[in-house]
Design goal:
Layout: H1 12-28, H2 34-53, E1 58-59, H3 62-78, H4 87-101, H5 109-112, H6 116-119, H7 126-150, H8 159-169, H9 179-210, H10 212-225, H11 241-254, E2 263-264, E3 269-271, E4 274-276, E5 281-282, H12 286-290, H13 293-296, H14 333-350, E6 351-355, E7 366-368, E8 372-374, E9 379-383
Antiparallel strand pairs: 1-9, 2-5, 3-4, 6-9, 7-8
Helix pairs in contact: 2-3, 2-14, 3-9, 4-7, 9-10, 9-11, 9-14, 10-14
């Protein structure tokens, strides 16, 4: 939106202050604790209810999952969830989908030739990006303005209230806590979190259809580890290392994020014998890392056991980093892991998933945008009686 604000696209002191604030807030909401599990649990309960109502008809799962994931993010930001019948919810999902497909992994033609926006704003996609940003801003500002009206001194029960409280503390002094910054933080969380998580789940469901023997092993593992009356919880993931191995293999094999978001060198550096000048833009090729034959031996094979040691314990190599490295790791990693583990586990425990009759079988040829997504497919969810 014409600024270098938010968290994902910033660095230096601004980034340190804002990242610390958001991470602290997420922890205060209980991320990694029971509060977060409760948030995800409510969405899982609704999702399972929708699958039950489908009565084993052939459906597309990703629109259902996308709403669940977006609602977890929305609640962390605004303190409330959107009803599935709320037109704002579908509108927001549509905007995020359009925005994701407006770029490719290299940022689109505008990233390479930014001057094209002056010559061909329509064909270059510049007008589309401007319009989508305008609509996203209007939708988020509606929620932010509603928070202004109900804010009270020190209120911090969701991220927007907490941010407004920090804004008020400045009393007019220079600060990084501004309305533009709040808007960009909200966008960062939505754009970076919603589609990557829902796309990972979409890929995971698709791979279970393509590899029914692995699907059966996943279900048997869950049934052995969790009593039928017990909720599956991320805090209990240690019971089922195979499930975590399957999810890790989905992230490696399907590479939802083939290339990392851009980073900037803040000083001259030497890396692998190469001189990298200050202010160079760097991107990590996760696709190359995850398909390195010298390390994985058979990267073209979908094999969850590669993430287990000889005794069946989870063993994740340091080079496998679906959420990034170091201080620039995804700030919503624990939320994403909790959502993926819980939603995937509950669906697989309660339903056998098979390809739709007479329709095209899911394919491992993916659709490219900012992230990779599966080609749309339909599936039948057959309820399992416990």
């Amino acid at each position: 939106m014409g600024t270098r604000k938010g968290i994902v696209g910033t660095d230096g002191e601004h980034w340190k202050i804002q990242r610390h604030f958001v991470v602290t807030h997420l922890r205060s909401l209980g991320f990694g604790l029971k509060t977060m599990d409760d948030m995800v649990r409510e969405e899982v309960t609704e999702l399972l209810s929708i699958l039950k109502q489908s009565k084993e008809n052939e459906i597309k799962i990703v629109p259902i999952i996308s709403v669940s994931v977006l609602n977890v993010l929305w609640r962390s930001l605004s303190g409330s969830r959107l009803d599935r019948s709320d037109p704002n919810l579908q509108y927001l999902l549509d905007l995020l989908d359009k925005r994701a497909l407006a770029f490719n992994m290299a940022g689109g033609v505008l990233n390479t030739f930014p001057w094209l926006r002056f010559i061909s704003p329509e064909k270059s996609g510049y007008n589309l990006v401007i319009e989508l940003n305008k609509e996203l801003k209007a939708l988020l500002m509606k929620t932010i303005n509603a928070h202004y009206e109900t804010w009270t001194d020190g209120r911090d029960d969701d991220l927007i209230y907490s941010f407004i409280s920090e804004m008020k503390k400045s009393n007019g002094a220079p600060t990084t806590f501004t309305e533009d910054q709040l808007l960009m933080v909200c966008l960062d969380i939505f754009i970076a979190g919603s589609q990557t998580t829902s796309n990972t789940l979409d890929f995971a469901i698709m791979m279970m259809i393509l590899y029914p023997e692995i699907q059966e092993k996943v279900r048997n593992t869950l049934n052995e580890a969790f009593d039928k009356t017990e909720h599956i919880s991320y805090n209990c993931r240690g019971r089922v290392p195979y499930i975590e191995a399957v999810i890790s293999e989905v992230q490696r094999y399907c590479h939802v994020i083939p290339v990392s978001g851009p980073k900037r060198t803040v000083k001259d550096a030497i890396l692998g014998g190469y001189r990298i000048p200050k202010d160079t833009t760097l991107l990590f090729s996760f696709y190359s890392i995850n398909n390195d034959e010298s390390y994985w031996k058979d990267p073209e094979v979908f094999r969850p056991e590669r993430f287990l040691d000889s005794e069946g314990r989870l063993s994740v190599p340091e080079r496998f980093a679906p959420y990034g490295f170091g201080l620039r790791r995804c700030i919503g990693e624990v939320l994403a892991r909790t959502s993926i583990f819980t939603i995937f586990g509950e669906i697989l425990r309660n339903y056998m998933i098979v390809e739709a009759t007479g329709s095209q079988k899911p394919t491992e040829i993916f659709v490219s945008g900012i992230t990779l997504i599966p080609k749309q497919y339909e599936a039948k969810f057959i309820r399992i009686s416990h």
